[in-house]
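Chapter review: from sequence to fold.
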Amino acid sequence: MAQKPTIPKGTRDFSPFEMIRRNYIFDSIKNVFIKYGYQPIETPAMENLSTLTGKYGEEGDRLLFKILNSGDFLKNIDRSDFEDSNLNKIAAQMCEKGLRYDLTVPFARYVVQNRNDITFPFKRYQIQPVWRADRPQKGRYREFYQCDVDVIGSNSLLNEVELILIIDEVFYELGINSAIKINNRKILAGIAEYIGQSDKIIDITVAIDKLEKIGLEKVNEELVQKGLSKESISKLQPVLKLEGSFKEKFAKLREILNDSETGLKGLDELKLIFNQLDKLELKNNLALDLTLARGLNYYTGAIIEVSAQDSKIGSICGGGRYDDLTGIFGLPEVSGVGISFGADRIYDVMNDLDLFKEESVSTSQLMLVNFGEEEGKFCLGLLQELRKAGIRAELYPDTAKMKKQMRYADLKGINSVLMVGEEEINEGLFTLKNMKTGDQEKVDLNQLIGLFKSE
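The token string follows.
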């Protein structure tokens, strides 16, 4: 008996129904990107491990999918490494390539390699899959799509403003009520400086990033474990408990960070962004979140994260400013800022909240019933005219019983069926049936086209 085929955990097949919905998300996001002047690129699924390693921190390196070298991948292995269980060294000798972990680092590599052919500031978008050797769970997959948009070669904070406008428009178009949170790496550095623990900024931010999940008491316990003094933790408490509008938080933070040049610069950057957006009437909520600390391995300024307010699924979009990501590839001092939409999580949110519009899940608008060979030949010409008019139409390929053909249309979600028999051909009038209501009417070709054009 043949073994039943399976797919790797954390990956998924997508049915036609699911793909239509996914493409609706991709198309909606892409149309907004294009509207704002961004151009498409693609990069390979695999990159050299030297490109990927060390760019995402220790955890990121651990989650990289590595690809075995072609041929005898064991030929360069030092056998003593097996005896010492030196797994990292063995992996480095067996694998020169890996699947991309995100789209940002490959983009930085692309910019450096193509610097002479790029017009700066370079505004690009990219919609491709990425891979992470993570533990699969709801909303977290090993293979998933990212929809990235970045501008590189510009220090202007208007780029951050534009990206937040893109976020706002995308989620408004998709019908997702979103919370847009923003912070700044410089403010976090200023807070670490204020409590006298500048050297522990990563430990501090990793802990406070969990505040919403584990609560203040547990965060303080983790800070103690990381070696922070009671005095430093005590000074941090008023910062963690800050509430109110951006203006209220800003005023308090000006007092707290008064002696931190870096912290004040971060505050001024956020003030400019908030002031510009305040005039533009966002449709989604924007707030300063001091616990937001994602991507500190390469973000240097603004940090952005978005979640759906009506769903428990986590982040559905995020990004930030990176001042020298291309520097690791030999092109220093080229600042960039970008965001990434998690298409798979967005799909799950929209599915859970029943946000897909009917037009986003339809296939053909019209099916022509196949009554026989001669009628089928006539319908092929009719289909050409309908498709020229932009109507999505198909002919049932076999001369099957009417019940079977109608069931096919019903299962595919085709709302209209056209019956073109010998009588209809002679009259030049076709019978159009509404599959939802059961109503029927006689129409000629021009009327038929007009009905679908008016929808």
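Two observations follow directly from the output. The mean pLDDT is 90. The longest strand covers residues 122-131.
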